[in-house]
Amino acid sequence: MSNQSEHIFVEIENKEKEHEVKYESVIKGDCPKSTRKYFAISPEGDFLVEFKEIELDSPDSLKFELKMYNIKNSKNEDGLALEKDSKPENGSKRENEPNWGDEQELSYRKFSRIHTDTKLPFAKAQIDLIKNVPKPILRWSVAVSDKSTNLSKFRLLAISCISAKDMECCKEHYKKISPKEIQNIQNNGHTFVFIINNDYSINNIEDKELQIKYGGIVKLFYENDPTNADNHFLILLTLSGILKYHIKNQSTYSIQKLKYPKRIYNSIISTVINWLDITGDFESITNYIYTYILLCINKHYFLVDGIKEDIKYIELYDLKTNQLVNTFQRQILFKSVLVDYPSCYTISNNGKLLAYLSFPIKGIIIYSIECGLEVAELANILDTDIFKTISDSDKIFLYFYQNDEKLLIYFSESDPSSAVWAVWDIFSSLRVSVKLNQQKFILEFPSIGVSETGLGYVEKSNSCIVVYQKNDDYDKLLIYDDLVVDKYFNLKESDKQDWITRDLEDNTQEFKIDKLHEPWLFKEDDAQHSFYLDKKKEKLLIIVKHTVQIWYRGTLKFIHSPSPFFDVPNLSELEIWYPKKIEVIGIEYCSEKFKFSIQIKDAEGVKQIKMDYEDDIMHVAKYACNTLKFLQTFSYKQKNIHVLGKLKSGFDDFIEQTRKIILKLIRLYPTEWRLLDIRFDLMSTLVKAGEYELVYYVLSFGNPIHIPQYLPWSDKENMTSTTISTAFSEDNTMLACFLEYYSNNAIHNIGWMNTVVDIIPELFKSNDENENYEFYAQKLFYSSCFCDKEFDLFSFEILEVSPKSNDLLKVYIPITQLIPQKSEMVLQKIDYDKIVNIRMVPLMDFTTNKKMPDIKKGKLTNFIEILLSPSRYLSPGEMDYSPFIKLIQTGERDILYENPSMGAVINWMWYSSKLYWPKTLYIFALYFLTYSIISWAYIAHIQITVVELKQFYYKKKQYYLDLFNLVDLLSLFTAISISSYILIRYYTFENGFKNAESSQIFTFIIFLSILILWYEFILLLRIFEDFAQNLNMLYNIVIALRQFLLFFILVIIAVGHSLFILLGYSFYIGLTINKKSDNPFSNIIDAILAVYNWSSISFDNWNFWPLTIISVIGGFIFVIILQNVIISFMGEAFSNVVEDSKRGLYRYQIDLIREFALLENSLEFSDLDYKFKDKIRAKYICFYDDSNITKSWKEKSEQIRSMPYPKVQTLSKSEYETLSTQEDIYSLFLMMSLMMSLMMSKKHLVIQKL
């Protein structure tokens, strides 16, 4: 520790208020070598903080300055993007309007310096802490939050000091360093948290927990609800791990210390050993580790990516939730490198897409974050070695712009002047048109190795990026936003033709009308506007009443119908509905291009329609799909209204022409279609339009061109359902197609079942409405993906759950969340000898609730509470339960018992909840003991009383339909009634029960109640697996023998009744016996009991020879025949119930799992969570494929999969016209439609035979 005297100053630059508000897009200034600057931009990109460190006379004497900037978006003043040819009315340049020819003008946003009278942010105690940090200080890290939503409108500011001496503790044994030693590295830094008030004054936070004695990379995020910015997460990424502070209303709510994922430690250790063997420089290796960690961060996400291990996927974590978001398949290089940096990546601002730089393909891969599937790639765009990895000198940058629809790709291995870059218009331009080149204006980005070291700096927000560049004597601060993209595409246009403005009063028809262009109107249609777009007069633009069309040589090339403006009604109102007319506001066009604005009368808003480029397929595909949906309403009307054959033929031909547009785009541009489907949910549109052929064509395409999407593209878009849920509500045929499509692909990647998870409970819930859904669910649960999906999560530690029964599957839970550093849970590495037999449940997050409440109570508190008060049931609207709980709440159980994946799910859910139920057993034992000795302890039985009443209230009719619940009630009220009666009637404080009166009847009643309580106690012991199976076997044996037992009892009653008639009054017929009391047939009850105990009867007492014969025959029947028969029946029944014991065990466990999920206790930390020190979420569930257990299921699975779906509408063959050259894309589709028709015909024949 340094003991020298330092001089440290912290200043907020204070200038007089005479400074006018000045907006700048680039800030330049002097920056000597002794100065280092650090910046932080708010997540929303509207505020910037600059923290400056200045060395004075010696490196140990420091001075600090703090500046703040507002970031203003000039584009928002007009609400419109500034066009190249936009001119103000007075002819002068607009204020803040960018100069398209100025290379420095690359942002609509401008910096506005804030001049304040703020006092020093560092208090004296904080300055003393900075003095004690071991020198040299490696770097600083700064973070600033968004403005809060409460009246104070404050921001949080965090400044962290990082020492270069942290790694020196490993100097002596660095070659043997382990992840655990890295986690225990002493951190010598400090982090300070401040409040920036609405007047820009700065205060210290008084919370002592936020006086953080650690230094690292600091980040500030609000919680997942962006409307509540008062609750923040402060994330501190240190050498040893991640510190997470949950801040509510400016005070600490909770603190977590988390480990990095195992692959991060492995990469760090490998690089440390290699680096130190060569250089021995601990300061540089410390700087490398922090640079490595910094490259892993993007917004609130943390990427795990390394090339040292043979792992073919990357991992993405959410630092807000500590959870793994998804894994993404990638190629590996198999190359040994000294420095292992993660590859460059970026996350779209809406959290939907991940763009990843892949050197093996020399390009970019885009993944869907929701399902982890690759959606597009740009290969061979980088001019570099295929075996290259990221190095310190590389300048690489990726960023999403303009509603995440465009991606900036920047790459340079040397100086900025040789950098190549481009903007990929993801949902418009064809991928082949994207090339990395040197552009007409230069973008500047720092090298990766100098990030945040004072020489270069990049800060990202959700709306823009700030770049800091430092040269020898000066530096500059730049901001890049959507203007970069606008300028790129503006300068990229090669066609400089002038746009022609169409006179709206010019109704000249440039073609002869020879057919109806809107045949659904059932009358001759008058085009509002029609003209050719080219000199050859081949491309005709027609604007009719309801649509905009482009025809090329008699073939429809483009069609648009503004269906959202038409407010299409329900089917019952269609007959009286008629859409409004399009009103054109303005038209501009040139060769191959057009754009115009339209409005619907009585509808709010103006819609602009345009097609800018030859390869602009986005508008073509989206508009064609929406038009089919619009035309579907008229197709329905035609079925209910008599339509002339000619009109119907024209209408059908028009629909076919529209379908051809879509089919052509799918066939020629399948990847672009996949992207458009993600962006605009085109498959849902086709489902609503009833387009069976198109849906089937997409799903049966060679490479998958439709992937499941759960969330809408943006919060502004009103997407209330997924594609499969739309099919569920619209049509059985399409539902069957999607279920087959997703489940077949899930054998390769379980991300395909992303949206199927939530539809599973609905299949069973709606079974009463549609009998087909039961078979759909059966087909789904017997898909091969439920037992054949191979395990591929090699990098995660495993929680192994070994069942006590041999007929249950062993379960493996990959721990995919960030593990707390103080976790006491014993986790194993995956056994590579067993990997070949480990399978994955193809349903992600199947057992996790949608909401993650944060309820923590101590173990002692939990046990005392269960004694003193009953467990509270959650109200139905209080929790969004997991899909598994929703499934078992539907009452469907049988389909779960044999399915291997569902067996693994049940085993895990029981393992995670069974620790709650012994507490209930202990309470009942206490209650039983209390009743037995009739003491003063009322707490236990009161608690159980209220629980049973709550169960009855919650379950209502279902409660008393369960036999075991009736036993619960009987044992409860019988014991309480008797004990209350005895205490009130006979107990006195002076003599106790000494003077109590006893009676035979009341004592017998107590005897029965004790038996009932013992029976209830035995039933409660079913929480132990072995006991539950044995009890279930006994129960099933009785059920299996019930008919024979009934026969046996009737025989006994018959013989007993007959002997009673014969010998009940034997003295009247001359048959005497020594004593009347010795006659076992003196009454009918004794006679029946005597027959049951046949071997104890002595018929010699009557000296009547027929009775001797009856004795022999009865002994032969009862002792030899019937008893041996029942033994043989029991043996057969035993062999059957052994096979069915698993089903009975699952049945009971599912009931308890559901019961536990409905309790508030399920939200609290369980014993398992306390060992882990966090709430465990099982994103993936795996199991060991024991052939002895899964063999029968696999055999039945093959039979079920071969069965066709019942009552599926036949997909008709479309009679498409044959197109020439590239447009002949339908032959494959026709063949598929024919095959589908044949398959459906065979299916109908089978159904008829059945």
TrEMBL record:
<protein>
    <recommendedName>
        <fullName>Ion transport domain-containing protein</fullName>
    </recommendedName>
</protein>
<keyword id="KW-0472">Membrane</keyword>
<feature type="transmembrane region" description="Helical">
    <location>
        <begin position="1004"/>
        <end position="1024"/>
    </location>
</feature>
<keyword id="KW-1133">Transmembrane helix</keyword>
<keyword id="KW-0812">Transmembrane</keyword>
<feature type="transmembrane region" description="Helical">
    <location>
        <begin position="1044"/>
        <end position="1068"/>
    </location>
</feature>
<feature type="region of interest" description="Disordered">
    <location>
        <begin position="79"/>
        <end position="102"/>
    </location>
</feature>
<feature type="transmembrane region" description="Helical">
    <location>
        <begin position="921"/>
        <end position="942"/>
    </location>
</feature>
<feature type="transmembrane region" description="Helical">
    <location>
        <begin position="963"/>
        <end position="984"/>
    </location>
</feature>
<feature type="compositionally biased region" description="Basic and acidic residues">
    <location>
        <begin position="79"/>
        <end position="97"/>
    </location>
</feature>
<feature type="transmembrane region" description="Helical">
    <location>
        <begin position="1104"/>
        <end position="1127"/>
    </location>
</feature>
